[in-house]
Amino acid sequence: MKSLWSETQAESYVAKYAPQGVNRDLALRVYTTRLLGGDPRLVLHGGGNTSCKTIVKDLLGDDVEVLCVKGSGWDMGDIEPAGLPAVRLAPLLKLRKLDTLSDEDMVDYQRGNLMNSSSPNPSVETLLHGFLPHKFIDHTHSTAVLSLVDQPDGEALAREVYGRRMGYVPYIMPGFALAKKAAEVFEQDPTVEGLILVKHGIFTFGDDAKTAYERMIEMVTLAEQRLEKGRKPLVPAQNLPKEIAPLAEAAPILRGLLEGGGKRRILDFRTSPAILAYVNGAEVSRYSQQGVVTPDHTIRTKNWPVVLPAPEAGKLYLWADSVRAAIEAFEARYHAYFSRNNQRLGGTKTELDPKPCVALVAGLGLFGIGASAKDAAIAADIAVNTVESITDAEAIGRFEPVGEADLFDLEYWSLEQAKLGKAAEKPLARQVVVVTGGGSGIGAATAKAFARDGAEVAVLDRDSDAAAKAAKACGGKAIGVACDVTDSASVRAAFDRVAERFGGVDVVVSNAGAAWQGAVGEVDDATLRASFELNFFGHQSVAQNAVRIFKAQDTGGVLLFNASKQAVNPGKNFGPYGLPKAATMFLMKQYALDYGKDGIRSNAVNADRIRSGLLTDEMIKSRSSARGLSEADYMGGNLLGREVTAEDVADAFVWLAKAGKVTACTVTVDGGNIEASLR
């Protein structure tokens, strides 16, 4: 591992924050915290923390010695000064004379001594930082260090590497007791440059930011060097199928089988040669089931993943049976784990969701599993980190983390659970939505509307740049995918891409279309066929691929078609457009009829006079002029006298997605056109 310290960059942080009243100590603390947090081999998703002791002025202008320590909810990789709340140091030090201190009292006391009451909660390891005397203190969950200490003789291995340069702290759950023990270990030999927390992580410290940071880099490098000595490879598995089923076919099956209590999951897939060696290992059912590499990870990944066999091409029905059995066994094991540990604690805990958060699939790789794409990505990131750490641990010995009781105490610790947040889920959370023709107009507005309601969104458009731009506007983990709905191969590839990215599909808005004009008795065959290819067969191709994934998931699904008032109230010289749209309306009903038994709903939206790629400004000008109307009067030419927008149509699609008992329905969004109204 190389030091990334740069004097120029360090000074740029000092200069950047000085106008905000941030002193040099805190500016440099932000700088090195970001250096540490930017390397996943050191810090992942809230793991680790940093601090500095400095002087600030209070409201009276008096100098106060404070501990600036990482706050809850901040990521070390992009932390700002506000993410290192200042806590009065003197009151913290007085706590050391106590014999015991409850977590609740510790949190309240720390909050009560914040310089700014609006600051986030200081780290649960604030007292550890406070009880040590050093100005700058760094704490990480280094993958390499954990590979050393997650061994039956982990402390002995660490002593072999570091000797008397480091102190050694036995495993204790974070909080007051750990803080006191760490301080005692340091005071036994104040010459140490850091502390090894056995089966937990590493601390380094110094009187300046550079020293503390570079000590961390040096100590981690020493661990990395030790891991290169006398390595043995993982034992490869035997008898993998000759042909592994494609990811896009396996993922929806897994996703469907993970649904429980009406709650769907989002998947995040990862693979690499190292991951494949791990999941294909003959002993994967041993080394992957021992626990997490550092207890912090358990709230994101649970204590063990579900291990699944390789999906054989052409035999996915057999794989589905194996996956179902493995998930049921995982849940039974989790229930038993909870029961015995909850009994140990007096039956005071409430069981969390028993579904797995990580799946290891031989022949493919691994999946992070979560309520959102963000949660799934966090689980996948930690799983990848775990693969690296356990692989290294097994290479020099045998992976052995903390025991079950300690893992349970961390998983069900209120201070850890608080990291996950308790915000209510949005109405379409856990749903994957595909919008075709999503690069502009109604499609782009619809994609944004679904994203606002919590869905994971895939924007499909023939224009890949437009798709990417619309996806970015949705925020979150939305993706843009190039797709020409008139090309069946392109549609198949696009849906496979979505299944690979999120694990499957739940709602499809088939929106792509274009308008051709002409008198129906005079239009040439090429024009009419082109319109049918896009405005009918394009919808059919999209719907077929949606149903393919819906049925693999076996959790129902929603088809939503953008029809047109032309389907029921044709306009003069607009037959080339209206004819395929009428067929599409019938197509919607046929899907409702044929697949209702599978829980698949099919509905349509009839819109009229919406500014979009179909009804351009030029077309609006031409049509309003031909009718002797102003553009405003033309666009508001309905019973309500109001222009209908793309956002209004988007709202109708979202409503239909939520309307669980509505199918074979066409919703009209046109401000009122009695000639186009349905029953």
Q: Gyration radius, to the nearest Å?
A: 30 Å
How much of the sequence lies in strands comes to 5-15%
Structural category is alpha/beta
Instruction: Identify low-pLDDT runs.
Output: none
If strands are numbered along the chain, what order do they take across the biggest sheet? 3-2-1-4-7-6-5
The total of beta strands comes to: 18
Percent helix range:
40-55%
Number of helices: 25
Rounded to the nearest angstrom, the distance between the terminal CA atoms is: 70 Å
Biggest sheet descriptor: 7 strands, mixed
**Overall average pLDDT:** 94
From the spread of the alpha carbons, the general shape counts as globular
Structural commentary:
The structure is a single chain. The protein starts with 6 loop residues before the first helix and ends in a 10-residue tail after the last strand. By secondary structure, it is α/β, with parallel strands linked by helices. It has a seven-stranded mixed sheet with strand order 3-2-1-4-7-6-5, sandwiched between helices. A seven-stranded parallel sheet has the order 14-13-12-15-16-17-18, sandwiched between helices. It has a four-stranded mixed sheet with strand order 8-11-10-9. It is globular. The longest helix is centred in the middle third of the chain and has 29 residues.
